[in-house]
Amino acid sequence: MMRAEIQMYLDQRPEEKLFVRMHPEWYRMLGRNPQAISRLKSVSDQYYGRTFGQRLDRFNQRVNMMSMLVAMAQAMSEQKSAQREGTLNPDRTA
């Protein structure tokens, strides 16, 4: 049986409560050692991708995606200008 303060803690934090439900070994761990609640926080943060390193990785992925999209837009713009120049100057040979 889990202590009342741990149940209240989990009731206030639905994501951690769901984590404990998905990983039942935490019921035993918290029942035997209530001080493990701090470890639960760090483990659930890692599971949900809330650590600094994971957030930084996601940010890097988004920056790389935006960079790729900007490069692709520039390439398409250059291609359109080259096509326009080719249609405006029919004397040019490719």
Automatic annotation (TrEMBL):
It holds the Pfam family YlbE. It comes from the Bacteria. InterPro entries: YlbE. This is YlbE-like family protein.
